[in-house]
Design brief:
Blueprint lengths: L8 E8 L2 E8 L2 E5 L4 E5 L2 E10 L2 E8 L7 E7 L4 E7 L6 E8 L27
Antiparallel strand pairs: 1-2, 2-5, 3-4, 4-7, 5-6, 6-9, 7-8
Length: 130
């Protein structure tokens, strides 16, 4: 058995000051599972997200598959004496949207920075500081 297939993945990130924009997508794919000899077809998926980060705050909003209804995963096998067909849908791979809000508390130890006091008048051929 053999299965020819094509898979394309796109992931674009753009950063502007405190904002980050992400656009991603994956083409529909078809593959042969080598253990069960089942042909698996996965639908295309795509999405977009926008995030903002400033000081301790992080906000993100995004969506996945906003224009796709009923993305179905299909499995098929034909063993001659037995045929197998299965169609699956998953709520997690349907139209989704989300919002994330996070705040990071800084409990780290504050350290003071002292002036760098280094003698720069070293007369050595090995260590010369200008």
């Amino acid at each position: 058995m053999n299965q020819n297939g094509f898979l394309g993945v796109l992931d674009v990130n753009y950063f502007l000051k405190d904002f980050a924009f992400n656009l991603y997508g994956r083409t529909a794919s078809k593959r042969l599972d080598m253990y069960s000899l089942v042909t698996v077809k996965k639908p295309a998926s795509y999405g977009v997200s926008v995030s903002w980060s400033h000081k301790g705050w992080y906000l993100e909003a995004g969506t996945e598959n906003p224009f796709t209804k009923h993305a179905r995963y299909k499995e098929h096998a034909d063993y001659g004496v037995y045929k197998y067909n299965q169609v699956q849908t998953s709520r997690i791979n349907q139209q989704t949207g989300y919002v994330k809000v996070a705040y990071t508390f800084d409990f780290g130890r504050k350290t003071s920075r002292d002036k760098n006091d280094v003698d720069r008048n070293i007369n050595s051929a090995i260590m010369k500081v200008d």
